[in-house]
Amino acid sequence: MTKKYAEIKAEFVERLTRIYPPKEVEALFYYYIDGRFDLKKHVYVLNKDKSMPEKDYLLFQQELELLEKAFPVQYLLGTIDFMGMIFSVDGHVLIPRPETEELVRLILDEYEGVSGKKVLDIGTGSGIIAVSLAKHLQEAKVSAIDISPGALQVAKHNAMVNNVSVDFQEVDVLYALVSDFNGKFDIIVSNPPYIPAKEEANLHANVVKYEPASALFVPDDDPLVFYKKIIEIAGDILSDNGSVYFETYEDSHEELFSLFKEKGFTSIRSFNDLQGKPRFMRASWRVNS
Length: 289
Prior knowledge:
- The protein contains 11 helices and 11 strands.
- The strands form 3 sheets. Strands 5-4-3-6-9-11-10 form a 7-stranded mixed β-sheet, sandwiched between helices. It has a two-stranded antiparallel ribbon with strand order 1-2.
- Helices cover about 40% and strands about 20% of the residues.
- The protein is of the alpha/beta class.
């Protein structure tokens, strides 16, 4: 048994609009058929009255059942595009968000034409930041740490398939010592957990049920715990004129500004994401300041 592509789309939309907004379902459909069946939107439009092959239809039915349970389509397909590269993702790592690509581009813009910088990515997850900087930052020497062995396995695979060299280490940054790091760094970048636990109820089921909670949530009574620790050790592992870059929670910038200032950082600046929300921070370190 099979159906026409137009009927396939109608079934997809009908079943998933129970859990997602209609516009999101529409985008999800085209993302899915492209990733699973290599069927671009314009090709679908030209062929919507043709029948889907039976084996594809059987697979579609199986996977639609998973999607109905809010299983993330990125985990289903196993890969995601980021910075023009293909990255593997699974339940050990967060699904990369567009905002994180903005963070990477911010760093690339500020170091355009500069070569040989040493970079440390803290809480690397799937390795998207570390691998992207290794790929696009001229002759950069990139290191990355994470507490999760499963995440590091994914990150190492992503570095390999994108043909870059990254030094990955299993380190819990909350208990890290200066001796855990290999020398000084010019750039420290981190997108650490920053969502207060109380916000869990406001998140969609596809996030709460399937993405790793340890990479998302922080205690309500200490939501900046990771930022505090990174700022604390950054002065000891940054080179002179080195900088820290954070992806952040939009309500945290005032407090983070104070934390940076208290530690002795300069050139502290906030950046908005494309939605106009405060999302990134950068602060520089002067050894002799």
